[in-house]
TrEMBL record:
This is PTS sugar transporter subunit IIA. PANTHER family: NITROGEN REGULATORY PROTEIN, PTS SYSTEM FRUCTOSE-LIKE EIIA COMPONENT-RELATED. Keywords: Sugar transport, Transport. The keyword Transport applies. Residues 6-149 form the PTS EIIA type-2 domain. The keyword Transport applies. Pfam families: PTS_EIIA_2. It comes from the Bacteria.
Length: 151
């Protein structure tokens, strides 16, 4: 069992979707979490956007992990995006982002936040796993792949 698989579901696993900017991606994610988790879209967007302004959440190799702390959120949650058109994300290797995991954590979940971010970095650091995520043909196939992964 890993910390990542329980954070996403079929309705928060989006494959081959396109956005024209990070801002549009964050707006979509904010609306998605508002619908699936009953949160305020404006709070989510602001949290993601403000964190990104501190520095890019792109890791390189086409990966980004935008994340935010949300007041009133009870448990960590996530959304997985595989982008049809790679997005500029100011990555350290200057490569655009294709795989994006958006993580929301409760406002005071410091240790949990760091553990999940560490595990995501480990997951996305695996070149074979990245290739399998790019090849997954459905949200359920991607969820099965993430469920079977162990750090």
């Amino acid at each position: 069992m890993n910390l990542i698989a329980p954070l996403i579901a079929p309705d928060t696993t989006l494959l081959d979707i396109s956005f024209t900017s990070k801002k549009k991606l964050f707006e979509h994610a904010a609306d998605l979490f508002a619908q699936t988790r009953g949160l305020k879209a404006a709070d989510i967007f602001t949290s993601l956007f403000e964190r990104e302004r501190l520095g890019s959440t792109a890791l390189g190799h086409g990966i980004a992990i935008p994340h935010g702390r949300i007041k009133g959120l009870k448990d960590a949650c996530g959304a997985f995006y595989r982008l049809k058109t790679p997005l500029e994300f100011d990555a350290p290797d200057n490569q655009p982002v294709t795989l994006c995991f958006i993580l929301l954590v409760p406002k005071d979940a410091n240790e949990q936040h760091l553990q999940i971010l560490g595990e995501l970095a480990h997951l996305f650091g695996d070149a074979g796993m990245r290739a399998r995520m790019l090849d997954a043909d459905s949200p359920s196939a991607l969820l099965t792949l993430l469920d079977s992964w162990s750090s």
